[in-house]
Structures are given as C-alpha cells and as structure tokens.
Specification:
The protein is an alpha/beta fold. The chain is about 30% helix and about 20% strand. It contains 21 helices and 27 strands. The strands form 6 sheets. It has a 7-stranded mixed beta barrel, surrounded by 4 helices. The protein has a 6-stranded mixed sheet with strand order 7-6-3-4-5-20. A 5-stranded parallel sheet has the order 17-16-15-18-19, with helices on one face. Helix 2 (about 35-50) links the parallel strand 3 and strand 4 (about 60). Helix 9 (about 300-310) runs parallel beside helix 12. The two termini are about 35 Å apart. The mean pLDDT is about 95. Iron/sulfur cluster binds near residues 121, 296, 357 and 360.
Length: about 650
C-alpha cells in the first residue's frame, strides 16, 4: 500500500510502536526549538536530566515572546536561556532576531526531518516538508536529551488544492477556508497533507502560513510536499544542499479528503472569538475598524510585508485606525529597509514594531474597550489581545491593509490599493546575515561555563505519584473549546513570570472565573470538569503545571486537545473522558467526587466516579482514559521527570 509524505517520515524515524492510527508511537527527533515563554521551564527540565550536550542534530532557543523587558524578569530569563544554551550545545537566537517559526524555516528547517518545539505553531515547518510538531516543554527537554517523542499515530486528512489564487486572495484565506470546513477540533488526531495541482502555485512562505494555522484545527501537524518550489526557496536561503524531494505515493490512502478551489476562493475572516468562526469579508463591510495588526508567525514573511507595503505606497491609513507592522525576522526587516518598502510603511502611518510576537500574545497593542482589531494572526480567543471585550478578526495581509485604508472591514478585491504582484515572489537571493544567532560553546569551553539563574527563576512545582483513592470536589466546571489561554492567560503583565509558577497561579482561569485560584488554594485539592476539545490552542505546559500547583488531581472532559492531554500526564494529572457525554450535565461545580481503586482503573482504562450533590443525592459516572502504558507508568511515578529519573 502506498504511503503519504508524513507516513514516510514517520517510518524513517520510528523508534517504537506500530503505525496503526491511535496507538502510541515513539519518534526520533532531529531538531528542537524553544521560545522564551516556554523555554525557561524546558531548560530547567533539561538540566534536571543531567545530560551535558543535546543529542539532536540541531536545537535552537529563540527569544521572541517576552521582549518588553519591563523589569528584570524577562532579562533574567533571557540570560538564563542564553547561558544554558551556550553550555549544552544549543543555538541561541537573540531578542529582535525574529519569531521562532519564521526564523526556523528561513535558516534551519530541512525537508524530511522531524522537529518538535515548545510552541503549538511549530507545524509551520511543514511548509518546507518537515514533520514539525508542537509539544510540551518537558517533551522537548527529553528529545534534547536524545529521548523519543511519543504521540498517538495520527490518521491522515488530504486537502486537495485546485486552481490558482486570484487577486486579493491569499494563503490566509486558504487556511481559513479549511478551518471553516473542518472546525477547531476537526484536525484532532490527524495530520493534514496538502496535495493537488494548486500546491505548485504556492511559495514556501505561503505554504508556511497554511501549515502554521493548521494548529488551529487541532491537527498533530500539517505538511506540504518538498518540490522545486521548496528547492528554489532553500537555494535563495543559500541552503540548497538541505533540499530533498518528498511526495506521497500515487496510491497513498487518506481517512478523509477535502478540497479547496483556489480560483473560486474569496477573502475570508475569522470572527470573534474563534478561528473557525469564518465569514466572507464582503459580509462584514459595515464593521468599523479601530486597529489593524500585520505580523505574527502566520503572516510576517517578506512577501507578506512587501504586499502590505505595495498597497500602502503613496496612501495614508484612515484617521480612526492604528496600524502596527511586525516583520517576522531580521532578514525580512533588513530586506524591507534595503528595498525602500519600509519607507512606504512608515509614510502611510504604520507603527513599526520589533521582530517578535508582540500584539499576538498581548504584549502591548491591546485594542480599546470593545475595539475592533483586524489581525493577520492565528488566534482570536477571548481576552488574548489583552482587552477582554476586544473584537478580534483574523484576516489576510491584503484584507488588513484594505481595511486600514478605509477604516471599515474591506474586501481587498474592491479596494483601489492593489498588491503589486511583481514584488512579492520569493527573491533569487535572500539577505543572509546570521549575526542574531549565537552558536554554542565548544565542548571543552562548555565544561566550565556558568549558567546564570536570576531570582525570577523558581524551581519546578513538585509532582506526586497518582494515589489509589481520590476524594475531593469539583472546583470548576467549564464549557466546550476551553483554550490554554483561558487556563493560563499570557499578556504583558503575566508573561514575565513564566518561570515563576507560584506567581502565575493567581491568574489561572482569570477570564473564566477570577475566584478559582483562591478557591483551589482553600480546598487544597480538586478536579476540573470540561467539555469538548479541552485545552486547545497554545502548547504552554503552564496550563498543566499551574493547576498541579493549585492541587488539581484530575481533569474530566468530553474530549481533550492532544498537546494539553500529554502535558497533563507529564505533570502527573489524570485526564479522564466521559464514557457517556450526557453525564457532563449530571455534575456541577462544588459537587463532592470520589474515585476508588484508581490503580486498578488505570489498568482497565476505566474508572467509575461517584458524585455527591449538596442535597445528599449521588450518582455514578463511568469515565474512560486513552493512555499508553508508558503514560500510565508515568502517572504512577508522578509525572514525566520522575518517570525519566526512575528509568
Ligand atoms: C501562543 O501562540 O499561544 C504561544 C504564546 O506562542 C504559545 C506558547 C506559549 O504559551 O508560550 C503556543 O502557541 O504554544
Ligand atoms: Fe508568537 Fe503569536 Fe506565533 Fe504564538 S502565535 S509563536 S505568540 S507570533
């Protein structure tokens, strides 16, 4: 039977397990990346393993999330990451050098290799033909130490691309259309592979926009073939020798096939507050816009920026609009400067921000009260912008610019401002200057090098072996599609404390229920009840570590997002699913719950939870778990670190 591209890469990297969808496989990991908001934890975890040098082919530590350096906290974290990277064989990308995913595909990504990153948008590398996956920091630490990365073997979805994009329509509209078709949980348990005649019409940066936002489908990853377009891109990055061709077999089998007709596609927008709430831009033309942001790891390539600049050339943005532009990398930024496009952006009224995540993670540029913000980003979850009632729409750079000019949501195909098609193809040669990347010390020098930890860096919360009896209460009940941004918000106030779990714990579930942390502390222990797709979005393991710190023993949900479920187990928290979804309605916040013979239940993949109401009534609710044997052992040992130490 023929194989898909992803199956070929998996086969080549398979260390354990069988390639049967749903069963656990262990993969050899060639490359890792971290960013600073998850990196400090990942490196503390790596250090605790006592491995002197990383055992991957390439590991890179990026600083891109916390670049405000308001106070000593971020700077402490950065110094720690820089020194720990130098000592252990990891490349360090300095603050200002760019957003991890953009820089990684420009300078390090290699078709056919495996990459895991402590950031959910790591699948961006799939645009180059990598098998690139988001993971928790602990999993990245283990991979740096040479350990396997474990996932349930994914099923395969094919997206057949037909035709060619018309004027004013772009890669962002392609992925928004896929989100419209599949929803934010449609990709859970699958790898999304792009195929068809349309593939060859998309450049690598366009492909990376699509694979980046595959994270919003909940997919394990997304991937494109590696073809002549890939080769041209790598040649222009002076890395042609990294190229190899990759394609699926003619008779490869997919579990599901959908198609997108590029020629028929119209500009789309994801409306508040979910990336799959997709509508045609032309239906939204009455909406007044307060703010427009161009950038983020989804849409900050040179092509995206040149498109925006060419539309803005000689024009001025509407008086009522504030426009930010964040180039994705120093390479993009310097090339914008060199060709004069930067001047077009500045003259039109844009505020040019640093090459970093910036507004995407609420680091400044929060919209006004109930303000409408059009962003070329990938997530519009409630409150993520830093303004709880902010109305965030996700759009293409063309739609963003057309709207910045009129002050209303505007379909770019109706705008006088046209992106100049001649300027935005991949150039023959990118400007290469890797001065923002610092190579690690050699092995000899590394032996005596010091790792510097400032006072913001607190140790990892203690994990506990899973007890045989759980007698506790429901501390919180939440709805479907709860994101890790709900569980552990980010933003400029909180992000500087990513290496300080006790401090972070005050903000746990802040947008849902600000009383939760106090209630949890007073109770000493508890469980959380969730709906479908619990824990979607960011890979931040803080969404497991903080609940651990607050005494959460188990999360009972209708279903889980992949990375978060793994993070819970890594932290020693039991993820349980309702056997009958309707039982969700039988359980309420404040109910007492008990589970007996948990260890037996673990073996049988089934636990019965007794729920007692305040009025004295009670009922039994059967729960199931989808855990590999390795994960069960991990829970009994008290999480991944203790399990690894024991091994
Ligand atoms: C995000 O986009 O939510 C982040 C911030 O990049 C996260 C990682 C984090 O929370 O540090 C992600 O996507 O994993
Ligand atoms: Fe940064 Fe936003 Fe991309 Fe996350 S989604 S890595 S915050 S740019």
């Amino acid at each position: 039977m023929g194989q898909t591209i992803a199956q070929k890469i998996i086969k080549e990297h398979l260390l354990s397990g069988e390639m049967v969808p749903g069963s656990e496989i262990g993969l050899r990991i060639d490359q890792t990346l971290t960013q600073d908001a998850t990196g400090t934890m990942a490196y503390l975890e790596f250090e605790s393993m006592g491995v002197p040098r990383v055992r991957t082919e390439r590991s890179v530590a990026y600083i891109d999330h916390n670049t405000l350096q308001s106070g000593f906290m971020n700077a402490d974290d950065h110094r720690y990451i820089q020194t720990v990277a130098a000592k252990h064989g990891i490349y360090y990308s300095r603050p200002g050098n760019g957003i991890c995913h953009q820089v990684h595909y420009e300078r390090f990504g290699v078709p056919g290799k495996t990459l895991i990153g402590s950031d959910s948008h790591t699948p961006t590398g799939g645009g180059l033909g990598m098998l690139a996956m988001g993971a928790g920091g602990m999993d990245v630490a283990v991979a740096m130490g040479g350990g396997a990365y474990y996932i349930p073997m994914p099923g395969m979805i094919k997206v057949e691309l037909k035709g060619r994009l018309g004027a004013g329509v772009s890669a962002k509209d392609v992925i928004l259309d896929v989100l419209r078709q599949l929803s934010v949980k449609g990709g859970v348990g699958y790898i999304v592979e792009y195929a068809g005649e349309g593939v060859g019409t998309l450049s690598v940066p366009e492909r990376c926009t699509i694979t980046n936002m595959g994270a919003e489908l909940g997919a394990t990853t997304s991937i494109f073939p590696s073809d002549e377009v890939t080769r041209d891109f790598l040649r222009a990055q002076d890395r042609e020798s990294d190229w190899k061709p990759l394609s699926s077999d003619e008779d490869a089998v997919y579990d599901k096939v959908i198609s997108v007709d590029l020629s028929a596609l119209k500009p789309l927008a994801a409306c508040p507050h979910s990336p799959d709430n997709v509508k045609p831009v032309s239906d939204l033309s009455d909406i007044k816009v307060d703010q427009v942001c161009i950038g983020s790891c989804t849409n900050s390539s040179l092509a995206d920026m040149l498109k925006a600049a060419s539309m803005l050339r000689g024009r001025k943005i509407a008086d009522s609009v504030s426009l930010s532009v964040s180039p994705g990398s120093r390479q993009v930024f310097s090339m914008l400067a060199e060709c004069g496009a930067l001047t077009d952006l500045i003259d039109a009224g844009a505020r040019v921000l640093e090459c970093a995540c910036g507004p995407c993670i609420g680091m400044g540029f929060s919209p006004s009260s109930a303000g409408v913000s059009l962003r070329t980003f990938n997530r519009n979850f409630l409150g993520r912008s830093g303004t709880k009632d902010g109305q965030v729409y996700l759009v293409s750079p063309e739609t963003a610019v057309a709207s910045a000019l009129t002050g209303y949501i505007t379909d770019p195909s109706t705008s006088d401002a046209k992106a100049d098609a001649s300027v935005y193809d991949v150039p023959d040669k990118f400007r290469i200057n890797d001065s923002g990347i610092i190579a690690p010390l050699d092995e000899e020098a590394a032996k005596t090098a010091e790792v510097i930890k400032g006072p913001n860096i607190k140790s990892f919360p203690d994990t506990h072996p899973l007890g045989d009896e759980i007698d506790t209460e429901v501390l919180l009940k939440v709805e479907d599609n709860i994101t890790t941004d709900h569980i552990m918000p980010a933003g400029s106030k909180i992000l500087p404390y990513r290496s300080n779990i006790p401090h972070l714990s005050q903000y746990c579930f802040e947008v849902v229920d600000p009383e939760f942390p106090e209630r949890a502390k007073a109770a000493g222990s508890g469980i959380i009840v969730g709906g479908q797709n619990y824990g979607q979005g960011s890979s931040r393991e803080h969404a497991a570590l903080v609940p651990l710190y607050l005494g959460i023993k188990a999360v009972v949900a209708k279903s889980f997002a992949r990375i978060h479920a793994a993070n819970l187990v890594n932290a020693g928290i039991l993820p349980l699913e309702f056997e009958n979804e309707a039982d969700y309605d039988k359980i309420g916040q404040g109910d007492s719950v008990s589970m007996h013979s948990v260890h037996e239940g673990l073996k049988a993949d089934r636990i019965v939870m007794t729920v007692k109401k305040a009025d004295g009534t009670s009922c039994d609710i059967p729960l199931r778990m989808e855990l590999a044997d390795r994960q069960k052992e991990m829970l009994l040992a008290g999480g991944l670190l203790k399990y690894t130490a024991k091994k």
